[in-house]
């Protein structure tokens, strides 16, 4: 049995070596017909990236027990142009206001409760993304401050 497997393997190896470069003459590589289009990020996407960057910075300061406030409440997310029209304006506005209120509450909170209020702000982000746009949820989860 071992000998027959060995002979078969040798036959396959030697038979594959018989391909001549002449066999490939006339064959041309075709240029890909599909070219991906990169779109400009929407106004809302740009704002949300800024929200994430600022939140990540605030998280770092909180973990170092620094006194910190959000220097921006991002109220302009209400009415910002989205990538698609699937975002229902009424439900988005409710969730956007919850986020804005969470930032304001964070800013008004005493130093000892800031981490809890920060996580409430992250909850507001997650609640919206659970309903509207699931993609960035794994990124948002990284903002939570664990006790």
Task: Please give a handful of descriptors for the protein shown.
mainly alpha, 147 residues, 54% helix, elongated
Describe this structure in words.
- By secondary structure, the chain is mostly helical.
- The chain has a domain of 90 residues.
- Helix content is 54%, strand content 0%.
- Helix 3 packs antiparallel against helix 4.
- The longest helix is centred in the middle third of the chain and has 21 residues.
- The mean pLDDT is 82.
Could you write a compact summary of the structure shown?
The chain is mostly helical and 147 residues long. 54% of the residues lie in helices and 0% in strands.
List the helices and strands and how they pair.
Elements: H1 2-16, H2 43-63, H3 89-108, H4 114-131, H5 137-141
Helix pairs in contact: 3-4
Helical percentage: 40-55%
**Low-pLDDT ranges:** none
The structure class reads mainly alpha
Please count the beta strands (DSSP E, at least 2 residues each). Answer: 0
Distance between the termini: 64 Å
Strand content: under 5%
* Largest beta-sheet details: none
Number of helices: 5
Q: Could you tell me the mean pLDDT? A: 82
Task: Provide the succession of SSEs.
Answer: HHHHH
The outline comes out as: elongated
């Amino acid at each position: 049995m071992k000998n027959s497997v060995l002979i078969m393997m040798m036959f396959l190896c030697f038979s594959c070596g018989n391909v001549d470069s002449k066999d490939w003459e006339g064959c041309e590589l075709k240029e890909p017909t599909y070219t991906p289009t990169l779109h400009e990020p929407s106004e809302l996407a740009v704002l949300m990236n800024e929200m994430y960057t600022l939140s990540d910075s605030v998280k770092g300061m909180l973990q170092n027990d620094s006194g910190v406030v959000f220097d921006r409440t991002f109220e302009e997310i209400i009415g910002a142009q989205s990538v698609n029209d699937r975002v229902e304006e009424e439900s988005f506005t409710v969730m956007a206001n919850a986020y804005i209120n969470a930032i304001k509450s964070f800013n008004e909170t005493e130093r000892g409760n800031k981490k809890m209020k920060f996580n409430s702000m992250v909850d507001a982000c997650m609640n919206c993304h659970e309903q509207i746009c699931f993609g960035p949820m794994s990124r948002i989860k990284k903002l939570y401050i664990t006790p």
